[in-house]
Amino acid sequence: MGTSKQRLLPWAIVFVVGLLIGWLGLGWWLLPVRWINTDPVDLRPTARQQYLDMIAESYDLTKDAPRAQLRLQSWSREEAGRLVLAQADQYQSEGKLMEERRLRALAQALNLTGAATTQPQPTATRPTPATTPATGTRGRLAGLLGIGLAVPLLAIGGGILYYLWRQRRATTGEAPAAEPEEEEFAPAAAPAVRPAAARAARPAAPPAASMQEFTATYNLGDSEYDQSFTIEDASGNYRGECGIGVAEKVGSTAGPATALEVWLFDKSDIRTVTKLLLTDFAYNDPGIRSRLATKGDMVLAVPGQSFILETQALVAAAEITELDYATVDPPRSSMARLTVKLRVQAKE
């Protein structure tokens, strides 16, 4: 089992879900893109109407035609004429004679001409204060849309994580392990023993009966080495897995191993226990130790070295039975061959 890949998959899913939530929640709702210092030609119709009114009112007070011409330079001369005259015709139909007079005086001073019928601005009535907060309303709608999309994504991500967690715990055709072991190893007949003593003598099977032994060997050149074993009880029910794989390589990604990881997974425990076997070089290198610090406890690889991996319901006694170093630089940095023997049994 590739434990490193299995441990990275949930975090990758969480990263993608978090990225989408940040994109929708922050980008659309909390910190949306806002336009500032835009050109007048990019204004929405209501803002453009106010802008033209401002230019006409300023010209009416100052009679400064060059300044008014400068303020209309975002449009072509024909387009500016169509916009100003169309707005003047609209004010005429609404009975706003002062505003109409200002716009026509502006058009006459700048010699603006154009067909008012081509004005793209809608001929609706002048917006009332109730329509002013349209931008805020759109922002709130965008925020609600972002939340509406983020919540299902978050639920999907959580569901995937929960499924992966359940998949590691669940097994096909699993049966309670306690009662079969209890019945299997209960005394067939004990006439000379009192009932209370008989009940006290009925716990789980002796360690020797439920123990499983595995041997894993790493050889130089197997840069993707990853060996695993299935742990079962006396009735054949799945209890977990154990194995050994490459944790750190020398030089390139295809280099020899300088550290191996021995791991134990228990289906009744949510965590995977890991021990790291380091060469002399890796064990005394601060950089390598810093990179491996989060993966598990570190053990100096020495022939005859033994260590324990323990979970909620399983315990594994491991021993390094063979270790040969490769004759490469740096010295004692690469494993040519390493063999680990694992003895796994259920706790009583």
List the helices and strands and how they pair.
Elements: H1 3-30, H2 45-62, H3 65-71, H4 77-94, H5 97-109, H6 134-169, H7 178-184, H8 195-200, H9 207-210, E1 212-219, E2 226-232, E3 238-249, E4 257-266, E5 272-278, H10 280-283, H11 286-292, E6 297-300, E7 306-310, E8 314-325, E9 335-346
Parallel strand pairs: 5-6
Antiparallel strand pairs: 1-9, 2-3, 3-4, 4-5, 7-8, 8-9
**Given the helix and strand composition, which structural class is it?**
alpha+beta
Number of domains: 3
Helicity, as a percent range:
40-55%
Q: Uncertain runs with pLDDT below 50, 5 residues or more?
A: 116-134, 172-195, 197-201, 205-209
* Straight-line distance between termini: 27 Å
Whole-number mean pLDDT: 78
Query: Radius of gyration in whole Å, from Cα?
Result: 39 Å
Task: Explain what this protein looks like in three dimensions.
The protein has 3 domains: 3-34 and 136-169; 40-124, no CATH class; 207-346, no CATH class. It has a 5-stranded mixed β-sheet with strand order 2-3-4-5-6. A 4-stranded antiparallel β-sheet has the order 1-9-8-7. The protein is an alpha+beta fold and 348 residues long. The chain is elongated and about 105 Å long. The chain contains 11 helices and 9 strands. The chain has helices at 3-30, 45-62, 65-71, 77-94, 97-109, 134-169, 178-184, 195-200, 207-210, 280-283, 286-292; strands spanning 212-219, 226-232, 238-249, 257-266, 272-278, 297-300, 306-310, 314-325, 335-346. Residues 116-134, 172-195, 197-201 and 205-209 have low confidence and may be disordered. 43% of the residues lie in helices and 22% in strands. Strand 4 and strand 5 (272-278) form a beta hairpin. Helix 2 runs antiparallel to helix 3.
